[in-house]
Amino acid sequence: MAIDLESDTVSRRIELMKFETRHLQGALRLSQEMGWPYRREDWEFAATVGEGLVIERAGEVIGTAMWWNYGQAYATAGMIIVTASAQGGGYGSRLFNGLLEATDGRNVLLNSTEEGLALYKRRGFTAWSTVLQHQGPLTVAVTQDTCDDIRPATILDLTAIQAFDQRATGMPRQSMVAELADVGNVVVIERAGRVAGYAIARKFGRGYVIGPCAAESAQDARLLILAQLSKLHKQFVRIDVYAGDELGDWLHGLGLKQVGSAIAMVKGQRPQSDGPAHMYALANQSFG
C-alpha cells in the first residue's frame, strides 16, 4: 500500500511503495543520472531475483532501494538511489528504513560509495573490506590455460555449484545461483571428480561481467577467469574483486584497469566461508 509522505497538494504527493515492473523505466533513469551503466535488462533481472521499494513523486520515480534475502539469517542490499533534486529531504532514510524492515532482522551486507558511508554507519553498518571495480575493452588476446580440470558446466553440475557457492559465501543462495547460471555462461574447475570452483560470465552494463567466481585458491580463480576471458576478446568486460585477494594487479596487466572502489559493509555478523572455498569475484556490487 502506498504511504503518503507529503500532503501539501495532490500534485506533490509522495508515495513509498513496492517496486513493480512499471517502475523499471524510472529506475533506469535514476541509475543513468548517477552515471551507472545499468541496462533496463539489468534492473529487470535484479527485481526478478530480489525485492525493492520506490518513492514516487507525482507518479515519477525519485528513489529506489533493493534487497535480496538469503535464508533467514542473511540479506544483501543495493541499488539505493535518490534523484539529485530530492536529496536532503529524508527520502534515502525512508527507503532504507523500509529495506531494513523488509530484511526482518537478518544480517545485511552492502557495498557503499563514499557518499553513502555516513548513512550506513549511522544505521550500525561497519566496514570489513574494499571491493575494486576493474573494467575495460579486452584488447589483450587471452587464451585459456591448458588445464584439463576446467570445463563448461552442464545442468547436472548445478547442485554442486550451488553447494560450492554456499561454502564460499556462507549464505544459501541457491535460487540466485540458478538464475545467474540460466542467463550466463558457466565454467567449473573439477578436482578428483568434484566441483572445486566455478565462474559465470553474463551480459551486463556496457558489455559483460565475470562473476560470481568462487574457488579454493587465487590460482584456481585466475584459471576460471582466464577461461571466461578467452571467449570475450574485444568485448567490454567488468570484474569486481576484493582488495585483499590481490587480483587487482593481475587484472590490470590484462588491460582491465581499476576504475573505482566500494566499501564492503555489514550490519550484524558476516557470513563465514566453509573450508578453502572463497568468493573472488562478485556477480555485481548489489547482490554479491
From TrEMBL:
Q: Which InterPro entries match?
A: Acyl/Acetyltrans_Enzymes (IPR052729), Acyl_CoA_acyltransferase (IPR016181), GNAT_dom (IPR000182), YitH/HolE_GNAT (IPR041496)
Q: Annotated Gene Ontology MF terms? A: acyltransferase activity, transferring groups other than amino-acyl groups
Q: Which UniProt keywords apply?
A: Transferase
PROSITE patterns reported for this sequence: GNAT (PS51186)
Asked whether the keyword Kinase is assigned, the reply is no
Tell me one Pfam family matched here: Acetyltransf_18
Signal peptide feature range:
none
- Where in the numbering of this chain does the N-acetyltransferase domain appear? 14-145
Q: What is this protein called?
A: GCN5-related N-acetyltransferase protein
Q: Which organism is it from?
A: Rhizobium gallicum bv. gallicum R602sp
Q: What is the lineage of its organism?
A: Bacteria, Pseudomonadati, Pseudomonadota, Alphaproteobacteria, Hyphomicrobiales
